[in-house]
Amino acid sequence: MSTAVLATRATFADVLDRLREHFVVEHNPTDAVWSPAELIRRLQGKHGVMSTGSERFDAAVLDACPQLRAVCNVGVGYNNIDVEACSARGVIVTNTPDVLTETTADFGFALMMATARRITESERAVRRGEWTRTGIHDHFAGSDVHGATLGILGMGRIGQAIARRGSAGFGMRVIYHNRTRLAPALEAAAGASYVDKATLLRQADHLVLVLPYTPASHHAIGAAELALMKQSATLTNIARGGIVDDAALAAALRAGTIAAAGLDVFEGEPAIHPALLDLPNVVITPHIGSATLRTRRAMAALAADNLVAALGRGPDAGHPPTPVNPGVERR
Ligand code: 8YV
């Protein structure tokens, strides 16, 4: 019996060709996200899936698709996948780390700078014909990035890459908080010092969130945390929407508790809390942290490699390059 796989979103033609060398492939040619019922329908008879962060793989989906053996996410984050439920059913889970680290760090830095220097807000004003409306002191005067204190919450690969940009490139003092402290050599390479979370919130001029979304990190930044931050501080979130309480953030921005926010991810995206859309001091982007052509191509290629290895029959069968649940006995 031939092996069948599903690609849930539009992807690169050469990646589909590679999959077709090994599998019977069904793919979504568009970027439209399938409903859970449609996903289950499409997964019938499929042994593997190349997924994105927009589809949820939980026990109900897995039980409705008993032949599914591999979920290969195009993305480093995998909060859309119930890994425990997958492991319990012998379903291999993979993600795409490393290939997107520097690209996503570039974006995090760019979003933080756009927020600090009010780039999109001022562009909107220019387009409205308001160039000369304000005085020299309030003419889109933002806050400095160079020499400021950069705070990073979540110090994995992307956090460390952002830290390097801040310390080596912009002369920033870099502080971080993470579940576990980095080894001294990694701290030195990042040019970053470990602090507790409250110190991070109190001292950061620019706080960047790069932590994974888990039940423990849900609303890690809410009203209480925002209240600890400097009034002049900016907050940048390139991690996941649920990490920030968007209603509390909108209230804090309106009240001047912090100065501005740069948001690439939102609770319930693509929907965005309406209060955030109304605020001038929020830079909004549509979850594009890893979106360069080269990196998106590398992510898709790695997901395809994972799928081929996870479902393959050769000596590497069941041992994909970047597993999330290594050692799981494939069903
Ligand atoms: C992806 C991401 O675009 O890697 C991640 O975790 O958030 C993004 O790079 C997203 O997962 C869609 O697949």
Automatic annotation (TrEMBL):
Keyword Ribosomal protein (UniProt): no
A Pfam family of this chain: 2-Hacid_dh_C
Keywords: Oxidoreductase
Renumbered residue ranges of the record's region Disordered: 312-331
Domain D-isomer specific 2-hydroxyacid dehydrogenase NAD-binding as annotated: residue spans: 109-289
Domain called D-isomer specific 2-hydroxyacid dehydrogenase catalytic: residue spans: 14-315
Family: Belongs to the D-isomer specific 2-hydroxyacid dehydrogenase family.
The protein's name in its UniProt record: D-glycerate dehydrogenase
Native source species: Pseudaquabacterium terrae
